[in-house]
Amino acid sequence: MNPEKLKWLGGRSGLAGFVCLGLLVVVIMPLTLDIFRLNLVGKYLSYAFVAIGLTLCWGYGGILSLGQGVFFGLGGYCMAMFLKLEASDPISTKIQSTPGIPDFMDWNQITHLPLLWVPFRHFGFAIAAVLILPTLLAFVIGTAMFKRRVGDVYFAIVTQAIAAILSVLIIGQQGLTGGVNGITDLRTLLGWDIRTDSARYILYFINAGLLFICIAFGTFLLSTKLGKLLVAMRDKEERVRFSGYDVSAVKIFVFSIAALFSAIGGAMFTLQVGFMSPSFVGIVPSIEMVIFCAVGGRMSLFGAVYGTLLVNFGKSYFSESFPQVWLFLMGGLFIAVVMFFPDGLAGLFEAHGKPWLKRLPPLLRRWRRTKLATQGSTQGSTQSSDSKS
Amino acid sequence: MAQKDFVLTVEDLTVSFDGFKAVDGLNLYIDQNEVRVVIGPNGAGKTTVLDLISGKTRATSGTIKFKGLELTQMSEHMIVRAGIGRKFQTPSIYENLTTYENLEVSFPRGRSVFGAIAFKCTSEVDERIRQIADEVFLSDMLHQTAELLSHGQKQWLEIGMLLMQDPELMLLDEPVAGMSVSEREKTAELLGRVAKNRSVVVIEHDMEFVKNIAHRVTVLHQGKVLADGSMESVQANPKVIEVYLGH
Prior knowledge:
The complex is a heterodimer. Chain A is mostly helical. Chain A has helices at residues 3-6, 11-32, 35-60, 68-87, 103-107, 123-146, 152-172, 174-177, 197-223, 225-235, 237-241, 247-273, 283-296, 301-321, 326-340, 344-378, 380-388, and strands spanning 188-189, 192-193. Chain A has one domain (30-342). Helix content of chain A is 75%, strand content 1%. By secondary structure, chain B is α/β, with parallel strands linked by helices. Helix content of chain B is 38%, strand content 26%. Chain B has ten helices and ten strands. Chain B has a six-stranded mixed β-sheet with strand order 6-7-8-3-9-10, with helices on both faces. In chain B, a hairpin with a 2-residue loop joins strand 9 (216-221) and strand 10 (224-229). The model of chain B has no long low-confidence stretch (mean pLDDT 89). Chain A binds chain B through residues 221, 224-226, 228-229, 231-232, 234-236, 238-247, 249-250, 253, and chain B through 54, 56, 75-77, 80-81, 85-86, 88, 92-97, 101-102, 104-106, 108, 110-113, 116-119, 121, 158, 161, 165.
């Protein structure tokens, strides 16, 4: 294929990355895993949206956000509010003192639907909210911080504080948000039961499709001058500014894109797992998401996905097998990554995997040649057509 | 004085950091196509003057006019877009990008976020990159990662990045620091070439180099202009000999 046409996909290696990840996620996993495990993978892949957002804004742009859970959570909550309203029709909630409102509101002595919830009766509004609300929040945070040149570790601390604030707010406003339990018992999406196995399969593939779209979009952004600007900003912010660029605008943009990706992930999480709670908003999940990205290699969009999968498989394996020590093992994994392979899985692949792959074609060619030679000795007529192909 | 004749007019410029006046009532007039060298002992406020002109530091009082445009309230990137390029004291380049990409990013188009996304490296851009690379002696290094360039080459690359912007006024902070003798000569020749259709303000310590390039020299001392004039007159000035050149 024409390499110019492939440029927006990250060239030939980018295409190979898509094919590999596509095979793994769309073919191998659905064929080998039962629906329970596949649903788990779907959940992990919804975290991968956050990780690829972090690759853009942290890995390339050098903006470390320790509050991506905020956007993941907001996306998830927007979706959950719609699903919850659909699940709370007057008939199935007739035993409540106020039928037709979500059950947790009824438990909190709320007698009518809060104004904030009303527009979430409409699916279109909910989708728009998933996409716009967290992005807008990131835009506001970004504008407030980057225009004032708050950066580096200070920005990380501020985002972490925002994550803490939002989770406290959600937990505190029990009647409005479901409090610490979150929004649970979600059933249908426009009448379609999302708890069935077939629905889970479909949602898994939608999730994977959206993830590929986000990766493609990220790869495209990185292939433009904006991608170079991000690296340039990380290297020498001052120089970029004195080349006539508004550095804060670029930072706000990439931070907002990362938030948008996270929000999509959050919404897909809610759909696949069937609930949303503050435990995906606060400091701990936000930092975990940074770990996913770091393990994958923060300069690789694909690496971020593999990192997310690896850490989460590790997490579920450790927590099933060694419930007491799994947190320590997770911590150890993070320390090991930072200390021994700071470029993560993608870095390991670049250093060891690629040279090994480069050695493959000559090996294959030799293997093919010997095969052809043996064939040629038995049936000489087929040799010429074989070697052409 | 007819202001319009000058590219840059700095008047009564003062900046004080917690009461310490790094620049104190400075006046500076830069002509078109002039190469002005600013010299002075350490701490004289040379770099601060460049910081003030390029918007990195805000003036406490005074005016800086560039072709009639008041710069003191403008943000750095707007000052650059107005036509002022700035080179830093230590070579300030993008180590992780190639020489080519360093120059490409400096091309003055597609400077907004969406402009950068839509930006295409057309043959016109490519031609300009190659032309500038040739001018700053880096034609053979186009696809080299910038961190692998030698110190002198990094200095040249940064000058090349300024040239990409085609500024009317170039501010160069110690462009030959850390360069070998032959590199200094090449740089002097380069500055002579690029100064043909723009004004250049250079901060430099190397007197040989200053002699080579300066049309006019300004000596700063404790934030004030100590002397101003041709190289010969400045070198003969007893006050300059006293505080800077030595006996």
